[in-house]
Write a structure and sequence with these properties.
The chain has one domain: hypothetical protein PF0899 domain (hypothetical protein PF0899 fold, 2-Layer Sandwich), CATH 3.30.2320. The chain contains six helices and twelve strands. The strands form three sheets. The chain has a six-stranded mixed sheet with strand order 5-12-9-6-8-7. Helix 1 runs parallel beside helix 3.
Length: 300
């Protein structure tokens, strides 16, 4: 009998489990444009100031003045993401190579699902499984009031969106692009037919545009999966990704193979149907300062 998942050992092999977490932390546009930070489990208070502090030159024996800036805080809240699937329990009896192949493939799918979940939750408070908004979540990036309607020139749209952010006093250091909008940018041409941005190729895998870090994903348009037909009409998100988003992985729950019960609430007992359930869970924590971002969107 293969020893990848021995009787009584209900956890994924460590090398596969660790790989899932690392890929999930690097596979989203959020992760590509804003670095994660260590974050303890639960609500995490993030200190903010309502204005910049200023220094003051004081002459000898002069009186020191007060600064009007006041500290405050916002709270990054935990959000658990779960990925699970049922399969026949026969794979547990297969040889080790076959078992490892199944788990590797599952790991790749889980990583993709968890990375997309981070984008969809933080940008739009979308539950990827249902495609609907979690209305109890009040903090999400797309609540920004800085919005640009997409026009005939994508590069001008980008400048307009960046101007809204810069005009509000924030830096622009990242742009997340929907693949179709990335293609529109990459194929923009002058009147004589020359491409404006030949370095962008066909828009695949753009990492920089106009000196701003870039990432491309269908999550920008709110798609739960790459093949989804849903579309929220957002084409790009522009803003202060480096400090306007605070996120981290608060907890990774051991990846498990469940053999008994009805853990996914389908009404089917696992053992009674010769099935097992593969489950992976991650707890993210995040807070988005939505006023530090602008979105480019198609007309409603």
């Amino acid at each position: 009998m293969a020893d990848t998942l021995q009787s009584g050992d209900l956890h994924f092999p460590t090398q596969i489990a660790d790989g899932i977490v690392e890929k999930a932390k690097t596979g989203s546009t959020v992760a590509a444009l804003s670095g994660q930070e260590p974050m303890r489990f639960g609500n995490v208070d993030i200190i903010t100031f309502d204005d910049d502090l200023t220094a003051e030159f004081v002459e000898q024996s002069g009186a020191k003045g007060a600064d009007d800036a006041k500290p405050a805080f916002v709270t990054a809240t935990p959000h658990k993401a779960v990925v699970q699937m049922r399969t026949s329990d026969e794979f547990r009896w297969a040889d080790e190579d076959y078992q490892t192949g199944i788990l590797d493939r599952f790991g790749d799918k889980v990583s993709l699902a968890l990375s997309r979940a981070l984008d969809l939750g933080l940008y739009y408070r979308i539950n990827p499984r249902t495609g609907t908004a979690v209305t109890s979540w009040t903090n999400y990036l797309n609540s920004t009031t800085k919005r640009v309607e997409a026009g005939d020139a994508a590069d001008i749209d980008f400048e307009s969106a960046a101007g809204l952010v810069i005009g509000a006093g924030y830096g622009v250091n990242g742009v997340a692009l929907d693949p179709k909008y990335a293609w529109t940018l990459s194929t923009a041409r002058y009147e004589d037919g020359r491409k404006k941005f030949p370095e962008l190729g066909l828009g695949q895998g753009i990492t920089n545009f106009q000196g701003v870090n870039a990432a491309v994903s269908t999550t920008v348009s709110g798609k739960p999966t790459d093949g989804s037909t849903s579309d929220n009409k957002v084409r790009a998100i522009v803003g202060n990704f480096q400090s306007g988003i605070r996120w981290g992985v608060q907890r990774t729950i051991p990846f498990r193979v469940l053999e008994f019960g009805d853990p996914d609430n389908t009404g089917r007992d696992l053992a009674g149907h010769n099935e097992v359930l593969l489950r992976a869970e991650v707890v993210y924590g995040w807070y988005a300062f939505s006023d530090q971002f602008a979105v480019i969107e198609d007309a409603a």
